[in-house]
Specification:
mainly alpha, 18 helices, about 70% helix, globular
């Protein structure tokens, strides 16, 4: 009974930690107004989550070291990000926001060390179910908080800072509920919350979230139907790749018309000129190590003002609206390369895990990695601020290697037991 209570308490702590990194506790009327919770309360939650997760990691340091070795590129990237204050264009701004990196990574390491992928999917599903329910309450009782008014009037943002953020959170929640394992008596809750997540995506009016969720569901369905079953699956996979490639070719050739149908201009609301300008400046000035974490977007930076002028007069963008561009600006091509290597390894392992199991929860890493890769094409959801995206990415990438080995051991053990039984039957 005591062990069960400890597990329940740790599950509650994990959900609180995940909710904190979604910025769900920092709910406010808008980005420029004070949060509803007093800052001291938010600080208590922040440091409690950080110190408790760090203490648990230290207590389980042997297992934590094994987990870190599953993807050493993440550790190197985090070290590079932390060192970027040395060459930062705005070292004061970089230093002030650097603890966020350690907070996110510490909690991600704790999450990967203490929970299996199956448990992680459940905790993620609970977190966003809670986020959706509380968001509905705010829209109902405090519409000034839960809805946009001045910009994007009527669009839902719930307990989050922006409609696109709300949409992306609900996309993660929908993927989690699609893949979370449940018994027969709980299927109604699973599919009920899944449909609720889809409804929340619709109310967010985030077109990016709608498109990304559709693509993820199609790809996840493909992998659920055609797992690794021999040569036939290889043929099906090749045909699937060809089909996706054909669709991409059509989208690329008709992208102006497609974006126009969604109310966007062919340059993604002016982002392409901004990206081109930022990449050019990076290559000319700091190609290898970048400008330091957030250094380009600090209050004292003239670069952000120049980039904003490409979008509209007197607009200062808070980020590049592209996670890969922002990462390159922060830690250069070296840092971007480290992340891409880590991402490719994680994708390979997620495909291997998805193909070699019939359990739906083992498709979760693939689903989340697809979300992260697609969503960062038009939003900055990697290491900017303290965010849930880096937490879930690092936890997923670190968990995959151990999960594959665990499943391989179970299969070999099952095969040994089967082989030992056969002679007795003969």
């Amino acid at each position: 009974m005591k062990k069960k209570n400890i597990q329940v308490a740790e599950n509650v702590f994990a959900v609180i930690g995940l909710t904190f990194f979604t910025q769900g506790f920092q709910v406010a009327y808008d980005a420029n107004s004070a949060t509803l919770l007093p800052p001291i309360v938010i600080s208590i939650i922040r440091y409690s989550v950080w110190f408790i997760s760090l203490a648990i990691v230290i207590f389980n340091y042997k297992k934590a070291l094994m987990v870190i070795r599953q993807d050493i590129f993440i550790a190197i990237l985090v070290a590079l990000i932390y060192a970027s204050s040395i060459w930062s264009y705005n070292p004061g701004h970089t230093d002030a926001n650097m603890p966020e990196v350690l907070q996110m990574t510490s909690f991600a390491l704790y999450f990967a060390t203490r929970f299996t992928i199956k448990q992680q999917v459940r905790l993620v599903a609970w977190t966003f179910a809670l986020g959706a329910i509380v968001s509905i309450f705010f829209v109902w009782r405090l519409p000034g908080v839960g809805l946009h008014w001045k910009t994007h009037p009527g669009a839902w943002k719930g307990i989050y800072d922006y409609k696109n953020t709300f949409g992306s959170m609900m996309v993660i929640g929908s993927v989690a509920f699609l893949l979370v394992p449940v018994d027969i008596k709980h299927r109604l809750y699973k599919w009920g919350f899944f449909l609720l997540m889809l409804l929340m995506i619709y109310f967010s009016t985030s077109k990016t979230s709608l498109i990304v969720s559709f693509l993820i569901f199609v790809i996840v369905y493909f992998y659920r139907q055609f797992r690794w079953q021999g040569k036939r699956s290889i043929v099906v996979l090749d045909l699937g790749v060809m089909a996706v490639g054909s669709i991409c070719a059509i989208v690329v050739s008709l992208w102006a018309e497609i974006l126009g149908a969604f109310g966007k201009d062919p340059t993604l609301t002016g982002r392409l000129p901004m990206w081109a300008s930022l990449i050019e400046r990076l290559i000319i000035e700091q190609p290898l190590l970048g400008f330091g974490r957030g250094g380009l977007w600090g209050e004292e930076s003239n670069y952000s003002l120049e980039a904003g002028m490409l979008l509209s007069d007197n607009y200062i963008p808070p980020h590049a609206h592209n996670g890969y561009v922002d990462l390159a600006l922060d830690v250069g091509l070296i840092g971007l390369s480290l992340f891409l290597i880590s991402l490719i390894i994680a994708f390979y392992r997620s495909l291997k895990l998805a193909y070699n199991t019939k359990n739906s929860e083992y498709i979760w890493p693939l689903g989340f990695l697809l979300f992260l890769s697609l969503n960062n094409m038009s939003e900055s959801y990697l290491i900017r601020l303290a965010n849930i995206y880096w937490v879930l990415y690092a936890a997923t990438a670190l968990s995959l290697g151990a999960e594959i080995r665990r499943n391989a051991f179970k299969r070999s053990l099952s095969e040994k037991n089967r082989n030992s039984i056969l002679p007795n039957l003969e």
